Amino acid sequence: MQVLDLHYREAATGLRIRVGGDRMSAKLITKVPPVYPAAMKAQRIEGPVWLEVDVDQRGAVTAAQVIATPHAELTESALPAVRQWVYQPTLLNGNPVAVRTAVRVNYTLTP
Predict the structure, then answer these.
(1) What number of H helices and E strands is found in the chain?
(2) Distant-in-sequence, close-in-space partners of 7: CB < 8 Å, separation ≥ 6
(3) What pLDDT score was predicted for residue 93?
(4) What ranges make up the beta strands (E) of the chain?
(5) DSSP class of residue 35?
(6) pLDDT at 5
(7) CATH class, range 23-107
């Protein structure tokens, strides 16, 4: 069984969102679930894959980078799925802005 935990953190980095103003956070509206790799299940490898994800003004994921992972095969499962996600755009003072967010895809096996 696969459990998908999502944790969001918006950061004021680069030309993305600035601190201040009236900000409305991004909301995930389309989530493509990753597939737990069979080899990882067989070896009982679990754990979170942490990604840093850039979301553009339209809510599309434009980049996803690995921050931490328990195994490369779990990363290979998480990245393509998360790159297909779509967010409701984040608004700053009523205008859509690009944001960077952290995502945790937690792979867990039940006993």
Answers:
(1) 2, 8
(2) 102, 103, 104
(3) 85
(4) 23-24, 27-30, 47-55, 61-68, 86-88, 90-92, 95-97, 99-107
(5) P
(6) 53
(7) alpha beta
Tokens 């490898």 belong to residue: 45
The domain spans of the chain are 23-107
Report the C-alpha gap between 67 and 19 in whole angstroms: 23
Q: Identity (one letter) of the amino acid at 43?
A: Q
**Encoded amino acid at 4, one letter:** L
pLDDT tens column, 6-59: 433 444 444 444 333 454 556 889 999 999 999 999 999 999 999 999 999 999
Dihedrals phi, psi of 41, to nearest 5 degrees: -65, -45
Match 């802005």 to its residue by tokens: 97
pTM equals: 0.77
